[in-house]
Design a protein that fits this description.
elongated; about 30% helix; two-stranded parallel sheet; alpha+beta; 1 helix; single chain
């Protein structure tokens, strides 16, 4: 796939775990994206049904 000039191509990311570490990971990724848009967070996967929503 060729990249288009001026179009930012991000890497899709799914974070495993929606608890504290998962939220911290999302925060860090957002901070990285402030400097250089690299990641597209698609969402979280967690087996704890209390975290679903």
């Amino acid at each position: 796939m060729k990249s288009l000039k001026g179009v930012i191509k991000c890497n899709d990311l799914i974070i495993i775990g929606a608890g504290g570490i998962g939220r911290e990971t999302a925060y860090i990724i957002e901070e990285i994206n402030e400097i250089n848009k690299t990641w597209n967070i698609l969402g979280f996967v967690d087996d704890n049904s209390e975290m679903w929503g």
